From TrEMBL:
It comes from Entomortierella parvispora. This is Diphosphomevalonate decarboxylase. Keywords: ATP-binding, Lipid biosynthesis, Lipid metabolism, Lyase, Nucleotide-binding, Steroid biosynthesis, Steroid metabolism, Sterol biosynthesis, Sterol metabolism. It is an enzyme of class 4 (lyase). One of its GO terms (molecular function) is diphosphomevalonate decarboxylase activity.
Length: 394
């Protein structure tokens, strides 16, 4: 019997012009366009296997080893409905095609990074789900078309359908058909740009992005200024900075946009705080490092973790500074920054270490070094699949 199965991986993306606010909460249509950098999935990815079979009695989903209910998740239901509708159309036009749209499916998905680390797992997760469905159903859609479906899983997921530098055009139409991801430049465009992810410890459970942004839309007058008067021009500037590989301009826009996103959170009523004392110290550290010229950019999403973008040549120095303030972290040295057991670099001579206190061991739990990466990948299910012969997680 033919097995209908596909296995794919999809990357994480970190926005440099942030998405924050929806004008339609069920279709997930944003109040502003946004732009992100896709990170290398050799370091961070979601992986998904989906099998369709006449033997399955219902649709089932396992996420990081735990079975989850499908019907109670409207966003998941939307992604399945959209892709099955497209497959049904194809099957109606071509009777030679196997009837996959009416079969039940088993979905098994896992991240190679802890969800608890607060990294953007919904972006890579939904991008991977939709991309794997498109492979299973052999949908004749390009990545922008697929991003329209992934967007309905999680807004930021639409940008993970491409590698490199990706814009999400907010669009204007009420049906969302023009609210999609577009490639600005691919992952080969600016190979010198790298990222350090600082996983900050935080006991508190923060407000989810979904709930947080709706409260901002409802209550923040500053958000109205941001979406009308700031983001349209900033998108143009950011695209130009990326095309010209102008790091100081890219970095200033990235830091200003992160700052403004957290300012609209503070302007929300009651206010939302995502950064903590450690996050704010990272801002001070990067600001001091940049005092004679911009050499690094910080950005923070809906949590205390920092992502620092910088040219490759500055990474050893930035890592040395972070190691000074945040002892006792695990370093994922995936790009061999400390080659052959080399020790951590010295602090830059004119760096004023008094700008922040040294934090307790483990305040930053983990630092991960990565770079710009490609879009979703198709893997051979036989070798890499997550489902066993019975269609259950291996
Ligand atoms: C701060 O995409 O997680 O990371 O669409 O409700 O699923 P939903 O929200 P989500 O929000 C991401 C917000 C952000 C900024 C960004 O990635 O652009």
């Amino acid at each position: 019997m033919t097995v209908f199965e596909a296995t794919c991986t999809a990357p994480v993306n970190i926005a440099v012009v942030k998405y924050w606010g929806k004008r339609d909460t069920s279709l997930i249509l944003p109040t502003n366009s946004s732009l992100s950098v896709t990170l290398n999935q050799d370091q961070l990815h979601s992986k998904t296997t989906i099998r369709a079979s006449a033997d399955f009695t219902s649709d089932r989903l396992w996420l990081n080893g735990i079975e989850e209910s499908i019907p109670s998740n409207n966003r998941l239901v939307a992604c399945l409905r959209e892709t099955r509708a497209l497959r049904t159309e194809m099957e109606a036009k071509d009777s030679a095609l196997p009837k996959l749209a009416q079969l039940n499916i088993h979905i098994c998905s896992e991240n190679n990074f802890p969800t608890a680390a607060g990294l953007a797992s919904s972006a890579s997760g939904y991008a991977c789900l939709v991309y794997t469905l498109s492979q299973l159903f052999q949908l004749p859609l390009d990545h922008s078309d697929l991003s329209i479906v992934a967007r309905q899983g999680s807004g930021s997921a639409c940008r993970s359908l491409f590698g490199g530098f990706v814009a999400w055009d907010m669009g204007e139409k009420a049906d969302g058909s023009d609210s999609k991801a577009v490639l600005i430049e691919d992952e080969k465009h600016w190979p010198d740009l790298q990222a350090l992810i600082c996983v900050v410890s935080d006991a508190k459970k923060g407000t989810s992005s979904t709930a947080g942004m709706q409260l901002t839309v409802k209550t923040s007058p500053l958000l109205q200024h941001r979406i009308k008067d700031v983001v349209p021009k900033r998108m143009e500037d950011m695209i130009a900075a990326i095309k010209e590989k102008d790091f100081p301009r890219f970095a200033e826009l990235t830091m200003r946009d992160s700052n403004q996103f957290h300012a609209v959170c503070l302007d929300t009523y009651p206010p939302i705080f995502y950064m903590n004392d450690i996050s704010r110290s990272i801002i001070r550290i990067i600001t001091e490092y940049n005092k004679d010229g911009v050499k690094a950019a910080y950005t923070f999403d809906a949590g205390p973790n920092a992502v620092i973008y910088a040219p490759k040549e500055n990474m050893a120095e930035i890592y040395a500074i972070l190691s000074h303030y945040f002892p006792g972290h695990v370093f994922d040295d995936s790009l061999s920054l400390l080659k052959d057991g080399a020790s951590v670099a010295a602090l830059p001579e004119n760096f004023d270490t008094r700008i922040s206190t040294v934090f307790a061991e483990g305040s930053v739990k983990q630092i991960l070094h990565t770079e710009v990466g490609d879009g979703p990948r198709v893997l051979a299910s036989q070798e890499h699949g997550l489902l066993n012969a019975e269609g259950l997680p291996k």
